[in-house]
Amino acid sequence: MAATRIWIKNPLAIFTANNLDAAGGLVIEDGVISELLKAGQQPSQPCDQTFDAREHVVLPGLINTHHHFYQTLTRAWGPVVNQPLFPWLKTLYPVWARLTPEKLALASKVALAELLLSGCSTAADHHYLFPGGLENAIDVQVEAVRELGMRAMLTRGSMSLGEADGGLPPQQTVQQGEVILADSQRLIQQYHQRGDGAQIQIALAPCSPFSVTQEIMRQSAELAEELDVRLHTHLAETLDEEDFCLQRFGLRTVDYLDSVGWLSSRTWLAHGIHFNPDEIVRLGAAGTGICHCPSSNMRLASGICPTLDLEAAGAPIGLGVDGSASNDASNMILEARQALYIQRLRYGAEKITPELVLGWASKGSAKLLGRSDIGELAVGKQADLGFFKLDELRFSGSHDPISALLLCGADKADRMMVGGQWRVIDGQIEGLDVAKLIADHRQAAKELIAG
Ligand SMILES: [Zn+2]
User: Fold this and answer.
1) 67 C-alpha to center of ligand 1: Å?
2) Whether 328 and 395 share a structural domain
3) pLDDT tens across 235-279, in order?
4) Helix%, strand%, coil% for the chain, nearest 5
5) Residue 234 and residue 204 share a domain
6) Amidohydrolase-related domain: which residues (predicted)?
7) 425 within a domain of the structure (yes/no)
8) Which of 42, 78, 187, 220 is the most exposed, having the fewest neighbouring CB atoms within 10 Å of its CB?
9) 325 C-alpha to center of ligand 1: Å?
10) Ligand 1 mean position to 281 CA, how many Å?
11) How many angstroms does the Cα of residue 270 sit away from the middle of ligand 1?
């Protein structure tokens, strides 16, 4: 059977995340981009379908590189609305410890649906809670990703340093090293797909310096090397964390990272705020990726990531919405707007452009996840596309369509395509009853807080 060829024709505007011109649109064949067209150019071969994109701004499907899906159950919870990271965590841990497979399934679906509707086609999640009964948390998440038809980098997180041993999390939320490593190995063997077009990938992700042992950091790095998967953790998010590292390990955060074998291009870090100039050089030389999480960093008053310095040193930059207890939205296109504005406060208006930030949210994020098949529009890349309309009141009177997306505050995609398949049409996710999902999720959130 001949492949289906689709022409995405004459978009209102298109951002390729590279220097290629696709003003006339692009052709998709078997879920992969087979041709980019200049203005007025026709596809080289006849197409079976044509989608007229004259009303759409087209972007590569955005890629979220840090989240905690389960936290959608604890958004805007009164007791932590005005707390910084450490007290915020200590107040939330006992609530999170009550998570169940059913609640995680609902939370993951909500987060993924929200991301998809905001232009995101690939999402990373950092799940580190495995209380009794929730040993199969990642398996639950795999199901949710498949249901939504998105791509995901699910990270097998972990916590192994409880309060009794000087860590931050309560003892009932930590696991033994052997259990963590055995489950990590199982998940990689069972689910990790390699090569172009992968839908599910697994990475290893001990939670943070104050919640895991040095041993599990080292062992995770060794296992990741052996099985060739990526490494992820939180680092240099707050000064409290820096103090913790100095007191417990006698090391600053990057020295700590180096000491456990993580200073490499296999690693991407969430936040990466409190680095000195020497540490920025070392992270850049190693090619360690940094996921910038602007909303969360403002919400918890953690600080501002030195993105341009890191990038200049050689560290790739991507974007993440972070967990929903600290954002509290999972909206990828709005996160790009937040990045634009907070980074302008640090580096000025001339250097931080909408194109730069959209590049972080697409091509930069793909680099963090170790993927070269997504994140930009070019021949041979996956047909993961976001389509935004500029027909709402907020866009009226705007001129440059790409800038308008961020400056006027676009918050939802009209259509989404993942691997050549339409997943969102007219702002609706194919095959998902959103009203029912909200009702069930809301109930689960109430139960979780009630205990
Ligand atoms: Zn996080």
Assistant:
1) 6
2) no
3) 999 999 999 999 999 999 999 999 999 999 999 999 999 999 999
4) 40, 20, 40
5) yes
6) 57-392
7) yes
8) 78
9) 9
10) 24
11) 6
Domains in the chain, number = 2
Q: Are strands 5-9 and 25-29 parallel, antiparallel or unpaired?
A: antiparallel
Q: Which of 120, 116, 110 is nearest to 427 (CA)?
A: 116
The environment of the single-atom ion ligand 1, i.e. residues with CB closer than 5 A, is: 270, 322
Q: Are residues 92 and 152 in the same domain?
A: yes
Residue 313 lies in a domain: yes
Task: Kindly state the helix (H) or strand (E) to which residue 177 belongs, with its residue range.
Answer: helix 177-191
Distance 68 CA to ligand 1 centre (A): 6
Expressed in angstroms and rounded, the spacing between residue 96 Cα and the centre of ligand 1 is: 14
CB proximity list for 328: less than 8 A, separation 6 or greater:
75, 76, 299
Ligand 1 centroid to residue 323 C-alpha, Å:
6
Q: What pLDDT, in 10s, does the model give residues 365-393?
A: 999 999 999 999 999 999 999 999 999 99
Determine how many CB atoms are found less than 10 A away from the CB of residue 436: 9
Shared domain for 42 and 138, answered yes or no, is no
Question: 322 C-alpha vs ligand 1 centroid, how far in Å?
Answer: 5
Measured CA to CA, the distance from residue 310 to residue 279 in angstroms comes to 9
78 CA from centroid of ligand 1 (Å): 19
**Residue 449 placed within a domain:** no
pLDDT one-digit tens code per residue, 216-227:
999 999 999 999
419: domain range? Answer: 5-60+379-429
**Domain identity same for 24 and 147:** no
Q: Do 386 and 362 belong together in one domain?
A: no
284 and 404 housed in the same domain: no
Cis peptide before 328 (omega within 30 of 0): yes
In this structure, are 54 and 203 located in the same domain?
A: no
Residues near 248 by Cβ (< 8 Å), separated by ≥ 6? 166, 209, 210
Query: Tokens 């998809």 belong to which residue?
Result: 116
